[in-house]
Write a structure and sequence with these properties.
Layout: H1 2-23, H2 26-37, E1 42-51, E2 57-67, E3 71-78, E4 86-90, E5 93-97, E6 105-107, H3 120-123, H4 128-131, E7 132-140, E8 143-150, E9 159-165, E10 170-177, E11 183-194, E12 200-208, E13 216-226
Antiparallel strand pairs: 1-2, 1-13, 2-3, 3-4, 4-5, 5-6, 7-8, 8-9, 9-10, 10-11, 11-12, 12-13
Length: about 250
Amino acid sequence: MKKILTTLIATIALFGFAATAMAADPNELLAKVDRNLNPESYESYRKLINIEPDGSKREYVLYTIKKGQDKVASVFLKPSSDKGRATLRLGENMWLNIPNVGKPIRITSLQSVTGGIFNNSDIMRLDFGAEYNAESVQEIEGGYKLILKAKADNVAYDKLEMTVNGEHDVPTEIKCITSSGMLIKTLYFKKITEFEGGRIRPAIMETVSPLNPGYKSIMIFAKVRSRDFDDEVFTLNYLPRIDSLRK
């Protein structure tokens, strides 16, 4: 009897979740995912690891800040050969500043300042809701799937298929797809962790691509925490000084 009762309760909970997910507006669910991943304005540290088919690795450590939906800046802390390089993203506009090499240079979302499979759009990620409309939501086991469509032609991926953990409302997998339906890469979100302020989100993101068999890139998040910044720090003039914001 106890086993039957437990099964019944689990079934009722599942149907309750399904009803909630199916009744919710897809873009409201996407906004919840965005806020669970990161505060609206925050700072964080990340390690990026590029792994080649022969097992060799290249590692980077970045300090990143973000404000609102359209401002992201980062500075490289390691390796020593890249230390001081800094990036700035304002909406779809991106720049790279290299110490002692004149003015910042324009870069694009599909390029990569670290090489590997993560492109600049992945590394300087805005809120998903800033670039995509959620067209539909579908109930699946353990959560739901959101189908996202790019708001503009210059967004890195035309379509995203986002699988979401229903307990924490965070992604577990995202398939990045072109307008012709070709899969470019898959992002896997792993190791759900509690960060400062009780925020529960994946601490690791991995990506592989059918276009680059045998290669893998990994992004590890640390010290994701809320912090307010002045608009001034998200300017080309301030870009060489991003490192000074670290506490």
